[in-house]
Amino acid sequence: PVTIQQEFRNYVAQTSPAPYGLVVEKAEGPHLFGSFSGVGESRAFFDFTSGIGVNSLGARNHKATFALVEQALDYGHTTVYGEHVQKAQVEYAKALVEKWGEGGQVFFQNSGSEANDLALKMVRKITGKKNVLALTKAFHGRGYGPMQLTWNSLYREGFGVDDSCTRWIDPFEPLFTQIEELESDFLENLGGVFVELVQGEGGCRALPQEFVDELFNWCHKNNIMTVVDEVQTGFGRTGKFFAQDTYGVRASITTIGKAGGGGLPFGAVISSRRNFEKLQTPALSHLTTFGGNPIVCAAGLEILKQVTPKLLKNVEECSRFMTAQYRIWAEKYPNVVEGYNGRGLMLALRLKSKEAAWELFETAREENLILAIKLNNPTVVRTTIPLNTPLDDLKSAFKSLEAAIAVVEKELS
Ligand code: PLP
Question: For residue 306, is it left (φ>0), alpha (ψ between -120 and 50) or beta?
């Protein structure tokens, strides 16, 4: 008989030659239940990736699930963005603006990539300038706009992306030396700078505070717009609601996504009303069919409401435990572990080599752990657990993770 895995490969378009292939049966909190055989030997896997950042309060978050079902029973889609008044959408926008700051508004999109695409459109439309700066190891999504900002040329090659308007600067090198090296033509036509304060696909690299302060001050002085991509860092991931809160900065434009849809497709741009008003000339300069879908907004609002001081305390406690372990492991397993990157629960385990990372990724599977390799940093594995993971569950997952590391240490020594 044809297996579900064969049908998956036959009918679901693949862009990876080796998909992970876990046949999922159920999900609960930080756990996925399923098997690689697909024939009923279901095991519980601890998902260290939180569904690549989406399930920030665990899979099938109960409050978000009830809210989305209730909303779906009342009404789902009614018309394109911004025409009908939908309570869930209004309430969610208001709650996001309360987190972001006075004078803000929200434009709802359907993904992180779309949110950054709109941010790029806004920078160019508002400033009348086409050039943008992004950071080395940056990742902002796969549409043509975000691809112009994506640092790794591998993901741009062959698509005819016009990246002539982008320059990349290294956040771990002095800012002003790099600015001095940019062509004066480029600087004259520079509209905005895109940053992830803790770079997701770059390997959970937290930008140095000094670099961020200097960059924001320089942008402010020179009327250059700042865009902070909080698609991965938002909703409490780095210890406060926005990573910007931990750095003490506010960008002209903030983009969010992933966790903010309560498991459903989501993205949004937050900026000032004045900035959004520029999209009214000509009218409807931006629009989307599905953005702001009431079912997504109802679920997202329930996620936002759960980002409480108590949750953030759990982020701090889990983070303290994880980073202490990572330091111990760097001593104990010198052939495998080098250290860690990140802030809050936006953490990655930094390994000695690409080989060590792949071996650990594979071995962890045997220990019922799901890890992931980062797109722009092959020597780290993602350990971005749900923010509400109970410390005891984390400790037990860490026992398995240490067992996997010990196996790889043996193999590589
Ligand atoms: N921005 C960042 C920082 C991301 O990490 C991602 C996805 O991983 C995106 C944007 C793109 O989001 P999406 O996959 O929802 O388009």
Answer: alpha
**CA distance from start to end of the chain:** 43
Quote the ligand 1 centre to 53 CA distance (angstroms): 9
Please confirm whether the linkage preceding 282 is cis (ω < 30° from 0).
yes
Provide, for the chain, the percentages of residues in helix, strand and coil under a 3-state DSSP scheme, each rounded to the nearest 5.
45, 20, 35
With contact defined as beta carbons under 8 Å apart, do 367 and 400 qualify?
A: yes
Could you tell me if the CB of 141 is within 6 A of ligand 1? yes
Mutate to test the pocket of ligand 1, among 52, 55, 109, 113 (most ligand atoms within 8 A of CB): 113
Report how far apart, in Å, the C-alpha atoms of 133 and of each of 66, 92, 323 are: 42, 31, 32
Binding site membership of 292 for ligand 1 (Cβ less than 6 Å): no
Mean pLDDT (10-residue bins), the chain, 413 residues: 92 94 95 87 94 96 98 97 97 98 97 98 98 98 97 95 96 98 98 98 97 98 98 98 98 98 98 98 96 98 98 98 98 97 98 96 96 92 97 97 98 93
Q: State in Å: Cα 150 to ligand 1 middle.
A: 11
Ligand 1 site, residue 117, Cβ cutoff 6 A: no
* DSSP secondary structure, 70-125, as one string: HHHHH----SSTTTS--HHHHHHHHHHHHHH-TTEEEEEESSHHHHHHHHHHHHHH
Work out the number of other CB atoms within 10 angstroms of the CB of residue 43: 13
SS3 28: strand
| pTM assigned to the model | 0.97
Ligand 1 closest atom vs CA 265: 15
Determine the Cα–Cα distance for residues 89 and 13; give it in Å rounded to an integer: 33
Phi (first) and psi of residue 349, to 5 degrees? -85, 125
What count of Cα atoms within 13 Å lies in the side-chain half-sphere of residue 359?
20
Question: For residue 120, which of 166, 151, 164 has the smallest C-alpha distance?
Answer: 166
- 11 contacts: CB under 8 Å, gap ≥ 6: none
Q: Helices H, strands E: what count in the chain?
A: 15, 17
Q: Ligand 1 within 6 A of 49 CB? A: no
CA of 113 to the centre of ligand 1 (A): 6
C-alpha closest to that of 171 among 141, 214, 142, 131: 214
